[in-house]
Design goal:
- Residues 6-149 form the Pvc16 N-terminal domain.
- Pfam families: Pvc16_N.
- This is Pvc16 N-terminal domain-containing protein.
- By secondary structure, the chain is an alpha+beta fold.
- The protein is built from 4 helices and 7 strands.
- It has a 5-stranded mixed sheet with strand order 1-2-5-7-6. A two-stranded antiparallel sheet has the order 3-4.
- Strand 3 and strand 4 (72-75) form a beta hairpin.
- The termini are far apart.
Length: 207
C-alpha cells in the first residue's frame, strides 16, 4: 500500500504546487550521492525514511465493516501508521532550489488531509483519510541516515502524508511554471515546524 501513498502524494503536489510533469520530476529514491549525480533536471525528492505506529491515536473500541461478500461484521480498529518523508529540492541553481523547496513546503499546510481526487482508488476506502503535517524533530534524529545521504548538503524537511489563500508558484529563471512570479525563497528552510506526511533541516556541509 505504501507505493499507492507515493502515487497519491505525487498527484497532490503536481496539482497544488504545481509541479508540471514536463518540467519537474518527482522521485521517491534515496537521495544518496549516487542518485544525486544522475539528476539532470529540476527534481523534488520525497524519500520515505521512517514508518512507525502512531501511539497517540486511540485504537479502542470496535468498528463496523462490510466484507467483500456484503456481510457486516465488527472488528478492532486497525492501527494508524505515521509515514515520514524527507523532502528535498534539486536544481542547478541554489536560488531555484530554494524556490522549488519553498513552494512545495507551502502547498502541504493548505489542506488537513489528502482530498479524494488525489487518493489512489484503493485508499479511498481507508479511514481515517491520510493526513499531512510538518513533522517536528532534529537533524540528529537519524544521524546514520544523514551521514550517508547527499541530502545532508541540501535544505530539507520532513512531512507526514495541511492553507494560505493562494499558492506560491515555483517559477525558476529557466523553468517558468506559472504566469506570476513566485515569492523570494527564504535564506534557509523553516525549521520543523505517517499514514500522515513531516520537516527537518539537516546540517549543510562545507564544500
Amino acid at each position: 500500500m505504501l507505493h499507492l501513498l507515493d502515487e497519491s502524494l505525487e498527484e497532490f503536489l503536481r496539482a497544488e504546487v504545481p509541479l508540471p510533469r514536463s518540467e519537474i520530476d518527482i522521485v521517491f529514491a534515496a537521495p544518496d550521492k549516487e542518485w544525486s549525480a544522475r539528476v539532470s533536471r529540476p527534481t523534488v525528492n520525497l524519500y520515505l525514511w521512517d514508518v512507525r505506529r502512531n501511539l497517540s491515536a486511540r485504537d479502542l473500541g470496535v468498528e463496523t465493516v462490510r466484507d467483500a461478500d456484503g456481510r457486516v461484521r465488527q472488528r478492532p480498529p486497525l492501527p494508524q501508521v505515521d509515514c515520514r518523508y524527507l523532502i528535498t529540492g534539486w536544481t542547478s541553481d541554489i536560488g531555484d532550489e530554494h524556490a522549488l523547496l519553498g513552494a512545495t513546503m507551502a502547498a502541504l499546510p493548505r489542506v488537513p488531509e489528502l482530498d479524494d481526487r488525489y487518493l489512489h482508488e484503493a485508499y479511498r476506502a481507508v479511514k481515517p483519510i491520510p493526513k499531512i503535517t510538518l513533522a517536528a524533530g532534529g537533524a540528529g534524529e537519524n544521524s546514520d541516515f544523514w551521514s550517508a545521504s547527499a541530502a545532508s548538503s541540501n535544505p530539507a524537511w520532513t512531512s507526514r502524508p495541511p492553507r494560505p489563500s493562494t499558492s506560491p508558484c515555483w517559477s525558476p529563471r529557466a523553468h517558468r511554471s506559472c504566469a506570476t512570479p513566485s515569492p523570494p525563497p527564504p535564506t534557509a528552510p523553516t525549521p520543523p515546524p505517517a499514514c500522515s506526511s513531516a520537516a527537518t533541516a539537516p546540517p549543510r556541509r562545507a564544500p
